[in-house]
Design brief:
- By secondary structure, the protein is mainly β.
- The protein is built from two helices and 29 strands.
- Strand 16 (about 290-315) and strand 17 form a beta hairpin.
- It is globular.
């Protein structure tokens, strides 16, 4: 149950002075989010088949294997504000040469709770402290007031119908409230109890969370680096555009970017691999895992981009683009995705996480066309073809014995001994599963992040429409739309668990097959 309130003002001023077009402006914003997020409030039950070897059978008998329930009083009330200012000059140096110069400043305040009811880990005392007390900043992190962002652009037409364009910009991200809201899910505001069957009694659906039962495991807090910086991106591009005729243009360009101070997470309390209980070997035995968010992430992107644009002429229009690109980072999202946990296997070695981004697509072609056929029929098509993005093979079992057993705490990876790519790939065997094997007990696997490529896709959508004029002011459009016209199988990710050989490397699902849709539109 959540609600948000925002106040925003964006004044701007434009002045024309000879060859200069000057623009000034500001962005003023106040934002408030409040409500409850009731994680595990009603409890969570797991039926693993421990009693009957079948999870479904355990469920039908009403005998859970594990129960988790939370008790909390963590009403959220986060507030933040932003002060942004910019100035820009579009300077026409010559009739065919324009230079754009700009500078932007951004300040986004750390989200804070007016009553201070958030708790963060004090890195000095290694204790959970109320924000705004004992040296812990009010929002869990200190303000970042150094966010200057220059901009530079150039447009030059040396000869008619040919234009060179270049640009550079420095951009800052706004605060992610999800990072700060995690401070509401720490003791004493939020506590977890775990329930197991005992030698004397089983858990039952009639009383899955018995009063006075269960135990409270060591808390696994979520905390933020007090020195978290604002994420930034440097973006640059260089392109040449040529008008082939009055209706058709072609452009070819290079586009790149570099991300700095990106949010990433790791376990601040991960023990070294080894035998024995995980919690007893942690650096701070009073805690379980410590989900620690810092601004140490980096990324890079480089691409060649081509575009053909033919405006409607001779009953045909076309917009087609091709991109050849590579994106590299050490975490592609703040939380886990289907392709990768976005959490290091070894929290002491983040350098080992640098790899292709989970959204990296090496080749992508996209084309949209419109054909005005005879008898008033208009055909529209969209064609997309792209290579697959990468994903990470993992182990379901905590082989290293370091707490790597879930998406929020990361997973162990297997060892890899050969290139897993197959020449002939099928849904039954998408990659060479024999190239992977569980690492030796109490060790991390040597397989890197995002080292296997998922299926690509080729998709063709088409529509046919006919307009009928019923009266002078009334018209009717009849349209048939066909998605994935060729009914090509667009496969989802293969199974990723290397310690489940019966399904590892197999594709068990796909996206939508061919779909047909009909539409009638009445225009009046």
């Amino acid at each position: 149950r959540r609600s948000t309130t925002a106040w925003q003002a964006q004044p701007s001023l434009q002045l024309l002075r000879g060859a200069h077009a000057l623009r000034f402006g500001a962005g003023l914003r106040r934002f408030r989010a409040h409500g409850y997020l009731d994680y595990f409030a009603r409890g969570s039950l797991n039926f693993s088949g421990a009693l009957t070897t079948s999870g479904v059978a355990d469920l039908l008998l009403g005998l859970p294997t594990l129960g988790i329930q939370a008790q909390f009083d963590n009403r959220q009330d986060l507030r933040t504000h932003a002060l942004n200012f910019y100035a820009q000059d579009d300077w026409r140096l010559a009739p065919r040469l324009t230079l754009t110069l700009g500078l932007r400043y951004e300040y986004n305040s750390p989200p804070t709770a007016p009553d201070g009811r958030m708790y963060a880990l004090n890195p000095v005392t290694m204790r959970l402290e109320r924000t705004g007390a004992n040296g812990v900043p009010r929002g869990g992190l200190r303000p970042d007031r150094n966010n200057f962002a220059p901009r530079l652009g150039l447009a030059w037409t040396p000869v008619p119908r040919t234009t060179f364009r270049a640009g550079y910009g420095f951009f800052h991200d706004a605060n992610m409230l999800v990072v700060s809201s995690s401070l509401y899910f720490n003791p004493p505001l939020f506590n977890i109890r775990v329930f197991f069957p005992s030698e004397d009694s089983l858990l039952t659906l009639n009383d899955p969370f018995p009063s006075g039962g269960g135990f409270a495991p060591p808390p696994s807090p979520t905390t933020i680096s007090p020195d978290l910086r604002t994420a930034s991106l440097q973006h640059w591009n260089l392109a040449i555009e040529r008008e082939l005729d009055a209706a058709t243009s072609l452009s070819l360009g290079y586009v790149g970017s570099k991300g700095t101070h990106l949010n990433r997470s790791r376990d601040l309390n991960q023990p070294a691999p080894g035998p024995g209980g995980v919690d007893e070997r942690r650096p701070s035995p009073d805690f379980g895992s410590i989900f620690f968010t810092e601004s140490g992430g980096n990324s890079s992107y480089h691409s060649l981009q081509a575009l053909v644009n033919r405006r409607l002429a001779r009953r045909v229009s076309l917009l087609a683009s091709y991109t050849w690109a590579k994106s590299i980072d050490d975490a592609s999202a703040f939380l886990a995705t289907n392709a990768d946990a976005n959490f290091p296997q070894n929290s002491r070695d983040y350098a080992a996480e640098r790899a292709r981004s989970s959204f990296d697509v090496s080749h992508r072609l996209s084309a949209a066309a419109v054909f005005e056929a005879p008898f008033g029929i208009v055909l529209r098509t969209i064609t997309t073809a792209q290579t697959g993005a990468p994903f990470t093979p993992i182990l379901r079992f905590d082989n290293s014995n370091t707490g790597n057993a879930s998406g929020n705490n990361g997973y162990d990876r297997p060892d890899v001994s050969a290139n897993p790519r197959l020449g002939a790939r099928t849904p039954q065997r998408w990659f060479d599963t024999g190239a992977f094997s569980p690492a030796r007990p109490f060790t991390f696997g040597n397989a890197g992040r995002n080292i296997v490529e998922a299926p690509g896709l080729v998709n063709f959508d088409v529509s046919a429409a006919r307009l009928f004029r019923l009266t002078e002011t009334l018209r009717l459009t009849v349209e048939a739309q066909m998605f994935n016209l060729t009914n090509t199988a667009h496969f989802n990710l293969p199974e990723r668990y290397a310690d489940e050989p019966s399904t590892f490397g197999r594709i068990l699902s796909a996206r939508s097959p061919r779909q047909l849709q009909f539409a009638l539109r009445l225009h009046f």
